Amino acid sequence: MEINLKIFRYLPNTGNKPHFDKYIMEVNPNDRVLDVLEQVRADSDPSLAYRRSCAHGVCGSDAMRINGRNMLACKVLVKDLGTSDITVEPILGLTVLRDLIVDMDPFFEHFRSVQPFFINNEPLPADGKERLQSPEARERFDDTTKCILCAACTTSCPSFWSNGSYVGPAAIVNAHRFIYDSRDTGAAERLGILNESMGVWRCRTAFNCTEACPRDIQITKAIAEVKQSIQTGKLD
After folding, report:
1. 3-state class of 161 per DSSP?
2. Which of 46, 139, 164, 182 is spaced 20 to 30 A from 88 at the CA atom?
3. All domains of the chain, ordered by start, with CATH?
């Protein structure tokens, strides 16, 4: 099939303004958008810059705006876009470094700020085995363990667009994963962090984050659970 492709291009500090390069291409309907970008690099312009790694929807490195929505380029088939007009842009709210590549440092700073790691300084079980957990206790936070840190949720959030100091949905999701882990003892400290002015209360329940997540995590639900725990002081 023939497509009309527009790709955002920008190289700071060169004096050139952001613009779109346009291509008319023949592609297979089953090609992924990432395949289309690879074809542009191979056949037309090797200077086109974007991030990619595994190309199988696991690493999360190729999140970008495709026809106005945050998606992973490696998961979206051309035929599923329902149009022959395809526009590819960088995700919003983060500084563009070049073309489709944005500066992810602020995103990961927010991620680190919520202590996204296991905390438990209590003695190990006397039998020397691992800290056990029931399937029911694991199910409590199973959904939020699926996050791949692609930033699609955070960069689709109007609250993040308006104030980049907001910790963002991805950070809250990763805090959720440990707050409700029955083996972890750092929940109170994380809830304190998220109760600050740029924490969980900046969420306006727009559902953009949930709709953008390529792993179908119920992000808005997780944020609501964290809010409730802060208000009640309870984790159940």
Report:
1. helix
2. 164
3. 2-102 (3.10.20.30), 105-232 (1.10.1060.10)
